[in-house]
Amino acid sequence: MDRELKLEGQATYETVALIGKAISGMYHLTVLPAVDLDMVELAVVEIGNNTVEHAYQGEQNKTIWASFKYSKSSVSITVSDNGSRIPDHLVAGLDSVEIPEMDPDDPDTWNTSGRGFGIINQVMDEIVYFQDNGKNHFRMIKHVK
Fold first, then answer.
1. Histidine kinase/HSP90-like ATPase domain: from which residue to which, for each copy (predicted)?
2. Which pTM value belongs to this model?
């Protein structure tokens, strides 16, 4: 049986953290390995934080939506907004972004930003970005193996 949870809230970093925890709770109901739980939650929070920072550029009173669907074969998590879309040049290469290497001897490589899409690619099996009815949707899918 497929199950779905839909969440909606004000687009703030605090709301994103709550969405991450709610989705983490739903993940426990699946047959997917528990070892992936923290990374899946991190992927959700990365996309949610990108929504607050980039899609809405910190504007107040904006909405973020998230949905969590699971079946016997996969988990699908979609984070949506009605802010600025991800630029086409980034969308074209979303599935090939890797986490930048850090050099312990070079502080210039210690950036905490710019790692989100790489993290998502590392933990999720598919990512899809699309627009529908004036909303931007970022879908992350994890398959049961």
1. 11-142
2. 0.85
Q: How many structural domains does the chain have? A: 1
CB burial of 8-23 (b: ≥16 within 10 Å; e: otherwise) equals eeebbeebbeebbebb
Contacts of 65 (CB under 8 A, 6+ apart): 6, 7, 8, 78, 79, 80, 81, 135
Phi and psi for 136 in degrees, rounded to 5?
Answer: -95, 135
121 with 98: CB under 8 angstroms? yes
Tokens of 74: 């996969």
List, for residues 39-77, the tens digit of each pLDDT value: 899 899 999 999 999 999 989 899 999 999 998 889 999
User: Whole-angstrom Cα distance, residue 111 to residue 63?
Assistant: 28
Q: Which of 135, 131, 138 is nearest to 116 (CA)?
A: 138
Residue with token string 């959700």: 44
CATH number at residue 71: 3.30.565.10
